[in-house]
Amino acid sequence: MTRRYSALSLLKEGFAGHTGWEPAWRSPKPQKSYDAIVIGGGGHGLATAYYLARTHGLTRVAVLEKGWIGGGNTGRNTTVVRSNYFYPESVALYGLAHQLYKGLAAELNFNVMFSPRGMVSVCHSDAEMELAARTVNAMQINGVDAELFSAADVRRVAPPLNFSPTARFPIHGGVWQGSAGTARHDAVAWGYARAASRLGVDIIQNCEVVGFIVEGGRCRGVETSLGAIRGERIGMAAAGHSSQLAALAGFRLPVISYALQACVSEPVKPILDPVVLSLGTGVYVSQSAKGELVLGGALDRIPSYAQRGNLPVFENVIAGLLEMFPAFGQLRLMRQWAGIVDVVPDSSPIIDESPLPGLYLNCGWGTGGFKAIPAGGVLLAHLLATGERHPISRPFGFDRFATGRLIDEAAGSGIAH
Amino acid sequence: MQLFPCPFCGLRDETEFHYGGEAATPRPDGADAPAEAWANYLYMRANPKGATREIWVHVTCGEFFEMARDTVTHVVAESSALGAAERGR
After folding, report:
1. What confidence score (pLDDT) does residue A413 get?
2. Which of A185, A222, A326, B83 is most solvent-facing, going by the fewest CB within 10 Å?
3. Nearest-CA residue of chain B relative to A246?
4. Cβ pair A359, A231 in contact under 8 A
């Protein structure tokens, strides 16, 4: 059986008719008990299981996924990876994820296609440029590779933008992060799943958690659609469905679930190199390796668990895109979809023990969870393995909503999540 | 485009409405209520999947009202003026 992915093994398998590849991950029946159980087989849950095994040496670990792995927000985002945040706490968090993304393909022996092609957030007025200068200063102090771009700089990296002086959103310049980019979203889930499975983690799909086993005031396991599974420590990484799990465990979260939609155009030849975000239209777009334009915008304004988008926001996103790139009006759209995102009041995640001892939270990433997957995994794994908060996750505690120490990135970096 | 029922204006386009929050979240009594009670009131949400009662505002007429709807199907069951239940409708 061929285990390792490489050019050599591809060549060997090519001569052998590709009959020797082993499945990327095992699909075992659940055992009666585990050292740690992770609820949610998206990027964050799978990464948590991987780091539990890799960093902390725990191998009796299960990931429980109610559908198929990577079928939630991990498969529904716009694949952007960046760390251009305002507050030092956020930069430490997203910077850790960004750093891990750079070496992830080698670490997992799975091509996650991380492509640091740069990202520009375009400004449309002198006032926005002044705010951008402040943001860039803050980012540089925090060690982020941010640069203030003039209109000419923006034109150099993204020539198809509408540079007409009579444009509704004229381009005055922008904020550039050269190391930002995109990664292949499915590959991140599959890569973590394969690497975790190799280290002995059980990945159990079609297994929905329907209750928690609580003994002596402590969470001791979960009731699932496949029966009871006991665990020493339970972590949850369920994004937009976190409130449902919390309700089963008997507490509430500061989360409202909204649909965030995105869409892709038909594939075309290379026309757009970096990721482009317009602060005026709220629309962001990049071109995938296949040539499709991948674009998205603001949240739908209606609390929702329907994994589809509503028309008004969709119209705004398309109108914004055509304002930014009039030439894209010739393109046809291929697909449109939505993920259910867990929005918290300060747009920063919660990585902490829950009010039910033994149950640990990884939620509240809102619209920005994909870029944070490696960090979410490292930090939840640390919590589960040690019972202690990691220094990077310490500011992102559940108690901040009572103490008032919020980390408001929506206000800080002007980024809508 | 979905139509929402404003109790004062009738069926109107969804873009005229703004979400206000979950209904029946009582405000803590007095400034000396503990921080946890305020956090509970200000931030913690049931965020139900399925049937829910919410406060919305019809931005066009400026009236706040209560709406019962489903967060999965987006079907609206009913809407009523605030306090209508207490007044016996």
Report:
1. 65
2. B83
3. B46
4. no
Q: Between chains, do A243 and B74 touch, taking CB under 8 Å as contact?
A: no
Which residues on A lie below 8 Å from B35 (Cβ)?
Answer: 402-404
φ and ψ at residue A356, rounded to 5 degrees: -95, 110
Asked if B82 and B38 touch (Cβ cutoff 8 Å), the reply is: no
- Residue A417: what pLDDT? 47
Cβ contact, residue pair B47, A256, below 8 Å: yes
Any idea what the Cα angle at residue A388 is, between residues A100 and A64, rounded to 5°? Answer: 65
| Interatomic CA distance for residues B38 and B42, integer angstroms | 6
Q: Is A330 left (phi over 0), alpha (psi -120 to 50) or beta?
A: alpha
Domain ranges of chain A: 26-111+184-253+346-412, 119-178+257-343
- Chain A CB contacts of B19 under 8 Å are 301-303
DSSP reduced 3-state for B79: strand
Contact status of B24 with chain A (Cβ, < 8 Å): no
**A315 near B CB under 8 A:** no
Q: Using a CB-CB distance cutoff of 8 angstroms, which residues of chain B are in contact with residue A344?
A: 43
Is CATH 3.30.2270.10 correct for B3-25+33-81? yes
| Cα B61 to Cα B81: distance, rounded to the nearest angstrom | 13
CATH architecture of the region A26-111+184-253+346-412: 3-Layer(bba) Sandwich (3.50)
Paired strand residues for A122: A174, A278
Nearest CA in chain A to B70: A304
Phi–psi pair at A13, nearest 5 degrees: -65, -30
The class (CATH top level) of A119-178+257-343 is: alpha beta
CB contact under 8 A, A302 and B15: no
Closest chain B C-alpha to A295 CA, distance in angstroms = 21
Q: Cβ separation of B71 and A305 shorter than 8 Å?
A: yes
pTM of the predicted structure, to 2 decimals: 0.95
Cross-chain Cβ contact A401/B43 below 8 Å: yes
Domain regions of chain B by residue span: 3-25+33-81
Closest CA to A396 of A371, A367, A359, A360: A360
The average confidence (pLDDT) of chain A is: 95
Q: What is the pLDDT of residues A117-174, one digit of tens each?
A: 999 999 999 999 999 999 999 999 999 999 999 999 999 999 999 999 999 999 999 9
B41 touching A (Cβ < 8 Å): no
Each residue's pLDDT tens digit, A202-241: 999 999 999 999 999 999 999 999 999 999 999 999 999 9
End-to-end CA, chain B: 30
* A316 lies within 8 A of chain B by CB: no
